[in-house]
Specification:
The chain has 496 residues and is α+β, with helices and mostly antiparallel strands. Helices cover 35% and strands 21% of the residues. The protein is built from nine helices and 21 strands. The protein has a four-stranded antiparallel sheet, with no helix packed on it. Helix 7 packs antiparallel against helix 8. The mean pLDDT is 84.
């Protein structure tokens, strides 16, 4: 049975013929049959093109098969590389999206470095390390699931054990009070039985005297009657006195058994609302993972500028309307780029700073982090200390990384960072914008009063486009008698 044709020659297919393809042209992005490949190699335009077998082509990952050498927007071949945006460009892209980009290089020069770069082997190691880290975490999580199951079983056993202990304790208390009830009722019964027997004896005696009294009245002589009545009187008087003594002595008082339930025991039903609490306690992750480099793709092509290469050019002045001249701008922002990472909010003051976790709104006070203005970049906190002429960098834990001071920085106010980690500070009292290196060791004044910078207060950078905006305020002498601050605010936009 003949094998199915999986790939057809693109050129033959355009002519309405289905011919099995044997090669793929990387640059033309077409399948070639044996005949078309021969013509392709002979053509002056394509003889230098690299090709691969269709088998090798299908061995490429799916996402790599979809990577085109042509610009999706303009349908033209990529020929240039923008170092600022770290992306390939066609000739139309330059006028469309990269008018202000100065670092444009031939794409062929950039691609020569890729496969020979030592980073390729490092990426292979990173992939291996990440996979091993994932496997370790999966193993760890499975272990945690088993541990939580064991903890559930243990907790259930503790619940049943406590219930059994409570039952045994209540059974013991129950038996003790039942025994006490039985003992006290027995004593009470015995005492009443003794009194009952005494009274029964006297009642029998009275019954006998009643019987004898009838016979006495019928048959006794006068003397016998007299003596007999005296004896009966004595006996009945003694019985009556005995009854009075019993009554007055309390022997005939009503005695009842009464149960009082322990207030502590009753409080169980009133105060105890649950058998206990089931809590989920979190402890720090302690599994040791292999360190993996972050954001390393950019280092395949070394495009990060040096501090000396940072040379902003003026785009436009933005003057605040006259009726709003005294608004005293302390911060500015270029939307949609936002300095927050969406996870953390930093509130700074002269005494301390507070980190707010935006996921659960928990707060962490950083006593050692004091700043006049702050900015965030890759988990670190950057701040200016106005009266000490300092620029500081801290970890999110508050641990200081570096502190920078220089004669070019006098009363620093606003602070921001570009995508490469360079720190931009406005220096109010000497009318400068200063850039500090990411390691906090060197600086360079990139704008001054000659560039229109006067009393700068705030600064921001769009990390995607490289546009920088600086808010300034010019104080104008006022001849009026009042003490009002006659000033004019404006913003200046630059391109890095």
């Amino acid at each position: 049975m003949a094998s199915l044709v999986t790939d057809c020659c693109t050129l033959c297919n355009d002519d309405g013929t289905s011919t099995e393809a044997v090669r793929w042209c990387i640059e033309c992005e077409v399948f070639l049959c044996t005949d078309c490949e021969k013509h392709h190699k002979k053509s002056r335009m394509s003889k230098a093109h690299n090709t691969m077998s269709t088998k090798d082509y299908h061995n490429l990952p799916k996402f790599m098969q979809e990577i085109s050498s042509q610009c999706r927007d303009h349908k033209k071949k990529y020929e240039l590389y923008c170092s600022f945006h770290a992306c390939p460009c066609c000739v139309t892209c330059i006028t469309d999206k990269h008018k202000k980009c100065q670092e444009m290089k031939p794409l062929s020069d950039i691609l020569k470095q890729v496969k020979s770069s030592a980073s390729v082997q490092l990426f292979e190691k990173d992939l291996k390390d990440v996979k091993e880290n994932l496997e370790e975490i999966i193993k760890y999580l499975n272990h945690r699931i088993n541990t939580s199951t064991s903890q559930k079983t243990k907790a259930a056993e503790q619940i049943r054990s406590m219930r059994k202990s409570i039952d045994n304790f209540l059974n013991k208390l129950e038996q003790e009070i039942l025994n006490d009830l039985d003992s006290k009722q027995s004593k009470l019964k015995s005492k009443m039985n003794t009194l009952l027997q005494q009274l029964k004896t006297q009642a029998n005696q009275m019954s006998q005297l009643q019987s004898e009294f009838s016979k006495m009245t019928q048959y006794a002589t006068e003397l016998q009657m007299y003596v007999g009545l005296r004896e009966i009187e004595k006996t009945t008087s003694e019985a009556a006195k005995h009854l009075e003594d019993l009554k007055s002595g309390g022997s005939l008082d009503e005695v009842n058994l009464e149960l009082t339930i322990s207030s502590e025991l009753q409080s169980i039903l009133k105060d105890v609302k649950s058998f206990g609490d089931i809590n989920i306690n979190t402890s720090p992750f302690t599994l040791q993972l292999k360190a993996v480099r972050k954001d390393q793709a950019q280092y395949l092509v070394h495009t990060t500028p040096t501090i000396e290469q940072i040379k902003p050019s003026l785009l436009r002045h933005l003057t605040i309307p006259e009726d709003l001249k005294n608004i005293n701008i302390h911060a500015c922002r270029i939307l949609p780029d936002v300095a927050s990472d969406g996870q953390m909010l930093v509130v700074s003051s002269w005494e301390k700073s507070t980190i707010v976790n935006l996921n659960d709104m928990s707060q962490t006070i950083l006593e050692g982090v004091v700043a006049y203005r702050v900015a965030l970049f890759k988990g670190n906190i950057y701040g200016t200390i106005y009266f000490e002429n300092k620029v500081c960098c801290y970890k999110s834990t508050g641990e200081p990384l570096w502190t920078f001071m220089h004669d070019d920085i006098v009363n620093p106010q606003g602070i921001t960072l570009d995508k490469n980690g360079f720190v931009y500070v406005v220096s109010e009292n000497n009318n400068r914008v200063v850039v500090v290196s990411p390691d906090g060791k060197t600086c360079k004044t990139i704008l001054s009063e000659a560039d229109g910078i006067r009393d700068p207060w705030a600064i921001d950078i769009d990390r995607e486009s490289g546009i920088m905006i600086v808010s300034c305020k010019i104080r104008v002498d006022n001849d009026d008698s009042d003490d009002s601050d006659d000033s004019k605010s404006y913003e200046t936009a630059f391109c890095l």
